[in-house]
Specification:
This protein folds into two domains: 6-75, Winged helix-like DNA-binding domain superfamily/Winged helix DNA-binding domain (Arc Repressor Mutant, subunit A, Orthogonal Bundle), CATH 1.10.10; 82-125, no CATH class. It is of the alpha+beta class and 151 residues long. It contains six helices and five strands, in the order αβααββαααββ.
């Protein structure tokens, strides 16, 4: 019997590989199957092999590496490299016209594009406090609904 989230298997597999693996962090097939089980997805080795190949065909660069008797899988390329994300975060952090709140929101979104491990590295390096930034402002909009609307 298939789990209720079977149709989401490929999406969750992509999420697992992008979040939990990178150039230095790998998952074995049993670990991948265990991670899928956390989403209530039953998976067999053969179907996961096929799904990893499908993700690679789609453009998510997943590499299989052999070390002794163990086989490891990891995602090796992303939309942005770690150095590029750092550069963007530095530009956002030093920008005077972006509010502190918006800076934090943008940095959080950029961190989501990295593996969990790289996001932790970035999080330790980011220090926004003390820089001259705009204060948060609310703008009143008139939309005709007879109530106050804020953006």
């Amino acid at each position: 019997m298939k789990g209720k989230n079977q149709k989401l298997k490929l999406l969750y597999l992509a999420k697992i590989m992008q979040e939990q693996t990178d150039e230095t962090h790998y998952l074995t097939m049993p670990e991948i199957i265990s991670e899928l089980a956390k989403y209530d997805i039953e998976a067999q080795r053969k179907s996961v092999y096929d799904d990893l190949a499908t993700l690679t065909d789609y453009g998510i660069d997943i590499v299989k590496e052999q070390s002794g008797s163990k086989t490891y899988y990891h995602c090796v390329s992303r939309e942005f490299e770690l150095a590029e994300i750092r550069l963007i975060i530095d530009a956002i952090s030093s920008s005077k016209f972006i509010t502190v709140r918006k800076t934090k929101d943008l940095i959080r979104k950029l961190e989501n594009m990295l593996s969990l491990y790289d996001a932790k590295l970035i999080d330790r390096e980011v220090y926004v406090s003390g820089r001259i930034k705009k204060y948060e402002r609310k703008y009143f909009l008139y939309c005709g609904c007879n109530s106050k609307c804020y953006s």
